[in-house]
Fold:
Amino acid sequence: MLTSLYVEGNSWFHRLPVRAKLIALLLLSLLLFATQSLYLLAPAFLLCGWLYFSLGLTIRQALARIGFVFFTILVLAVVNLFLLPLPEVAALVLRLMALVFFAAAVTATTTISAFMDEITILLKPLERMGLLNAADVSLALGLVLRFVPDIFARYEAIREAHRARGLPIRPLTIIGPLIILTLKDADTIAAAIDARGFRRQ
Amino acid sequence: MNTRDLVLIALFAAIVVVLGLIPPITLGFIPVPITAQSMGAMLAGCIIGAKRGALAFLLFVLLVAIGLPVLSGGRGGLAVLAGPSGGFILGWAVAAYVTGIIAERFIHEGQSESRQFGGFFLASVAGGIVVLYGIGVPWLSAVTGTPLLAAATGSLTFIPGDFLKAAIATLAARAVYAGYPLLPARA
Structure:
C-alpha cells in the first residue's frame, strides 16, 4: 500500500551517500535563493531537470510525482505576472522548479533505510541531551508502516457497514468510529511492546 | 514518555495517512473538495492533546521527507516540502500543538455538551486555521515571491472549506471524547 518513492537504479546519483545529497540540497537552496540572475538560474533549472529525468523514471512517472507541485508553482506564477516584472517571475519559477527537481531526485535515489540511518545520526545530539530516544523514532515509524493497511481495512469495513444499512457515506460518520476503534488498540500494542522488552527503560 | 504515548502517536500518524487515502468529497455549495487529511491537525490536537498531537505530525512529516507517498493524492518526498506549500505541511505540527493546548485548557469532564462543542470548535479554528495559515501563507509568499497580501487574499478561497472542516473535526472530536477520552491523560 505504501510503496516508497525510491526508484531502483545504479546511476552515480544513486551511489552518492545520503548525507552528501542532503547537504547538496541544502546548499543548492541557499545558493538559488541568493541569486536573481537568469544566467545562473536557467542553467541550474536545466541541470536539475536533466538530473531528475536521467534517473530511470519514465517521463510519465516522473511528471506524476511532481505534477501537483508544478501546477501550484505555475498558478502562483500567473498571479505574479500581474504583480511583478516578467524577469523576476521567470527567476522565481526557474529557481523553485530547479529545487523541486533536485529534491525529487534525492527522494527517488535514496532508500527509506538509508534515510533512517541518516536520521538516527542526526538525532544523536538530541538523544545525548535526553530529549528523545532515537530508537523510539524508528519504532514509531515502523508502527505507522505496520498499521496503515490495518487501519485502511478498518475504514473499508466501516464503509461496508454503512452501505449494508443504506446510510450515506460521509466523513463525519466514518472518522469518529475509525479513530475510536484504532486508538483503542493502543493499550494492547503498548503492552505487547513492553512484554517483549523492545524499549529498555 | 511511556510506551502507550508512543503507540498513540504512531497510530494517529497512521490514521492521518489513511485519511489521505479516502477519496475526496466535493460538496455542492463549495468548490473546494474536502480531503479528510487536512482535518488531521485539528483532530490530532483535539483528540490526543498538544504534545502527542504535535509529535504525531512530526512523525508524519518525517514519513513525507523520507519518500513515502503519504499525502493525499499519493504525494510525498522532499519535492513537496521544497515546493510552495511546504510551509503548510510543516505548519501542521504547530497547528496540532496549538489546537491541543486550547482543547486541553477548555474541555473538561462534566461540562455541558454545547460548551465542549464550543471548546473543540475554538481550538480547531485557532490551531487549524489561524496558526496554520499564519505559517503557511508567509512561507508561500517568501518562497514564490508572491506579495504577502496577494497570497493571503488568494488563501481566503479555502477558508469556508476550512470552517466546514473545523465543524466536522469538532463533531468527530466530541464523539471520540464521549466514547474514548484521551485528551486529559498526561503526556
